[in-house]
Give the backbone structure.
Amino acid sequence: MKKIFWVVVIGLLLSSNVFAESKKVKTWKNRQIPEELKNPNLETLQYHFLTYNIRGLSNQFYTKPSSQPTALKFNLQKEPKIIKKIVKKMQSTGLISYLMYEDGEIVIDQLSPPERFGDLIDNDTMIYSMSLGKSLGGYLMGHAICKGYINSLSSSLADWPIVKGTLLETATVQDVINASTGDQKYIKNNYLSSGRDIGDLTIADIANNELANTKPAKKRFKYSQFSPNVALNYISFKTGHKFSSFINDVLKDHVGLAGRLEFNGTGIESKGVIQSNFKATRYDTLRIGIAILNDWNSDTCIGNYLKDVYANRVIKGYIQGDGYSKSYAGFFHTNYPGISDTVMGMDGYGGIALLINFDDNRIVYTHAVHRNYNYKLFVLKAIDKGTF
């Protein structure tokens, strides 16, 4: 009943600025809380969690639950002082969910208390993520190569008709998944040179307008939603525009998701409508991380792909993107400061992060609406040391 109440509340918030003001809710034009804002009030955090989570209402591209989902083993034996630190942060910051996985077991599993976000989320809630969807696209690209739809990382996009005459025509798969296609003259953040938002557009539309008759600039890292959208829609093209069937093969059958996973996007698939944003439950998102960890540790095509991607990572330079990492590998963040272990991160807005330590067989997965919960301690130190 409380969740129904909040659905009604968010409808009122969205339709009434006066109501929002009466609830002490602060909003911004880009619909995101600025990272530099230190202490948003609870009403503002709740509002932005709900508005963020109702994005991507389309479910044209989705997976069905697996008949044999990957079993999750629990061994919640971390020291009480560690749990107290997480609980304390959940009572005062934008941290909503915290999961730590070590050596095949979930050792920390915490959700925000009812008086903060606990009435808005449980283990069955489909949680929306944008930047984690970029990394998922890199993982799916590996499966597309291993299943024979795409030849290799060095394959060119020249065979894709809708990018003919654009800077993407000379790009390789490696360029795309390293966000290094040379598109920096035409894209800033998630906006094209025309001012249009990439998230509102198909690949065909962008190719026919802003990128028509373009050539790549120097190929260097440039973080935006465009490259992951390109990657997912190129996979769609190479699978004969049977993207839903493909992701079911990977996410339902290989990863073993217990519920649905939904990608954003609607319309004619051949136009390039798939967006690199997805919804899944907290446990299913963790299952994706577990699959990536297990794949890395296996002597398989997808395991070798992940290692190749890591070996061919690119330096970010002054453009950092989300998180604090210094390099980028197949839409994964890599080379986090102070960490010598091999770590690849799915890292996003507001402190949403899923980092995988392949050396220590550890995963830390946080869902948050604001990065004011001490990300460096609860994510970076935790993934490195298993404690904080």
User: Anything to note?
Assistant: Residues 1-6, 12-20 have pLDDT under 50 and may be disordered. The first helix runs from residue 2 to 15. The chain has two domains: 2-53, 61-65+122-385. The CA atoms of residues 32 and 342 lie 31 Å apart.
